[in-house]
Each structure stands twice: as structure tokens, then as C-alpha cells.
Amino acid sequence: KMDLTTAEIADLEKEFELESELINLHYLLRLLLAKSIETLFSLDRLLYLHENEKDIRHVYLVKLFDPTISPRNLAVIAIKD
After folding, report:
1. Long-range contacts at 37-43 (CB < 8 A, ≥ 24 apart)
2. Alpha carbon distance 21, 42 (integer Å)
3. CA 24 to CA 33: how far, in whole Å?
């Protein structure tokens, strides 16, 4: 067990302040870009099915649930002939 004093904790916080800011920036970028990237992946799958699968009659991009729960809230639904 390691007991740290308040001064030692403050020194560690100051020492790793830059790393903490970089980690926070990383998570902020992930949060901002996650929905856009997931939507692009889903649209790419949708377009692939439209362009390359001749026996598929209809292709839909369906919203499954609220996007605030997860950015992976879309499903590609395809109906074959």
C-alpha cells in the first residue's frame, strides 16, 4: 500500500498535466467523430449492396435506437428477390 501526501499528489498532477489534457482531447475527438464515421461505414455498406449485388431488390438503412446511447445505431437491411 502506498500512502501519498497531498503535496505529492499535487506534484503528480502537475507533472502529468499535459498527458491528461492529451487524453481528454483524444476522448473529445472520439466523441465528436464517432457518429460521422459509423454513418460513413453504414452508407458504404449500403452503396456496395446497391452497386454489386444484382439479386437484391431493396436495401434500407434503418435507425435502431437513439444515437445518444451508441453511435452504432444503424442497420443495413437487404431484401433479395
Report:
1. 37/71, 38/71, 38/72, 38/73, 38/74, 39/74, 42/74, 42/76
2. 32
3. 14
Identify whether the C-beta of residue 60 lies closer than 8 Å to the C-beta of residue 77: yes
What is the tens place of the pLDDT at every residue in 2-36?
788 999 999 999 999 999 999 999 999 998 898 89
* Cell triple for 42: 453504414
In order, the DSSP letters of the chain are -----HHHHHHHHHHTHHHHHHHHHHHHHHHHHHHHHHHHHHHHHHHHHHHH-TTEEEEEEEE-S-TTT-S--EEEEEEE-
C-alpha cell at 5: 501526501
> Where do we find the cell 459509423?
38
Asked if 55 contacts 75 with a C-beta cutoff of 8 angstroms, the reply is no
